[in-house]
TrEMBL record:
It comes from the Bacteria. It comes from Gordonibacter pamelaeae 7-10-1-b. The lineage of its organism: Bacteria, Bacillati, Actinomycetota, Coriobacteriia, Eggerthellales. This is Uncharacterized protein.
Length: 127
């Protein structure tokens, strides 16, 4: 599935350099697929934070992980700050108990998570 998402992302990159909401969503999905071990570690940290009733920040998590791990995958994904918004939302789907301990600002990817639009791999957003 990662290769299909990577192909879709590559087509989007040809159209524009700025990351659209769709690109951010697709890139975050591909990052999770390319880095399952690191994603599992992130989810574990989120579960521990929720259990301990501690604040959890995806940006802070990326800062901590940058020094310890080299992301893998065909495209050699990096810990890019532009991915933290969609990754935080994917994390909430996987670890909903961390929700009260995360502060989420508004993001252009929200429409794929709040039901406004279907995810890009399904049908995208007609709006």
């Amino acid at each position: 599935m990662v290769s299909a998402l990577e192909s879709e992302l590559a087509m989007h990159r040809l159209r524009t350099e700025a990351l659209s909401a769709e690109q951010m969503y697709l890139e975050a999905r591909a990052w999770i697929g390319a880095n399952p071990d690191i994603w599992g570690l992130v989810a574990g940290h989120a579960r521990a934070a929720a259990h301990d009733r501690r604040r959890f920040s995806m940006k802070r998590e990326f800062e901590d992980l940058r020094d310890e791990y080299a992301p893998a995958g065909e495209m050699r994904w990096k810990f890019r700050n532009s991915l933290t918004a969609p990754l935080a939302r994917f994390l909430l789907q996987e670890v909903p108990e961390v929700g009260p301990y995360m502060a989420l600002g508004r993001s252009k990817v929200d429409r794929y998570f709040d039901g406004t639009c279907s995810p890009p791999e399904a049908a995208g957003c007609d709006a």
